[in-house]
Amino acid sequence: MVVMPSDDKSNSFDHCHRRNDDRGTFPISGYDNKAFRQDGDPLADIISKPPLQPEEEPVPKGKFKMSRKEKWRILKNIATISFAFMIQFTSFQGTANLQSSINAKDGLGTSSLSAVYAALVISCIFVPTFLIKRLTVKWTLCFSLFCYAPYIASQLYPRFYTLIPAGILVGLGAAPMWAAQATYLTQAAAVYAKLTDQPVDGIVVRFFGFFFLAWQTAELWGNLISSLVLSNGVHGGGSQSNNHTMSDEDLRVCGSNFCVLGGSQSGNLERPPDSEIYEISIIYLACIAVAVSIIAFLLDPLSR
């Protein structure tokens, strides 16, 4: 006996079938997930990667997509920091080279230099990371360069209670200054190497070489300024005739036979007049002000 389906069920089946036929089909697009290939996914063969948009240009491998002016901006910053350090150390090296002469009494000058480098040893351990994190590289440079100013100003009134604390301040500021300088040059070299598609190591060496070329000349300019001021003053005999006859006694203690012991006196070991020291100190203070201003107004920060 065969049981025929009722009309109600047939109508219900036809209604559902028509609803399924009314469903639309939609295109499928997206990225092909290679992890699900051969995993029974019926859509794996029809999914493909969308084409590259026409307005997008592929960036060459190893280069940044930057303006051409960025290259010259980096070179300008390297020249700026090098020139600022040259002026800064024209001031400091010129002053440091005179300490054993102008502040020879009781070993004040050499003691102040010892305080500088003793504080520098301690500063290298604790200060650079702390200061750079809070001030950034650029403003760490400005702050550290300014730490040299009190030491130069103390030459106007040289005492143990002025020169020694000022020397300690120089040492505390020197470590973050050199750390910030090295950080700036290294990161600028890395960007420049990417921009020009050159090896990073070669650019780092080139930038540091240019920097130390300028920095080493500071010794020359500092000694030149000191020599010009002292030789043209009263102490250097600028207003007197340099033509005089030396006795045999003077010649016997000249050159390799010269010795400050035994009561020998020499005008070259006397402290120059205060007016000449004031003149040198003011010139060197102006150099520090110029160096700090160059960093503050001409050097671009690393992050812009």
Automatic annotation (TrEMBL):
Keywords: Membrane, Transmembrane, Transmembrane helix. It is found in: Membrane. It is a multi-pass membrane protein. GO terms for biological process: regulation of muscle contraction; regulation of potassium ion transport. Belongs to the unc-93 family. PANTHER family: PROTEIN UNC-93 HOMOLOG A (PTHR19444:SF13), UNC-93 RELATED (PTHR19444). This is UNC93-like protein. It comes from Parthenolecanium corni.
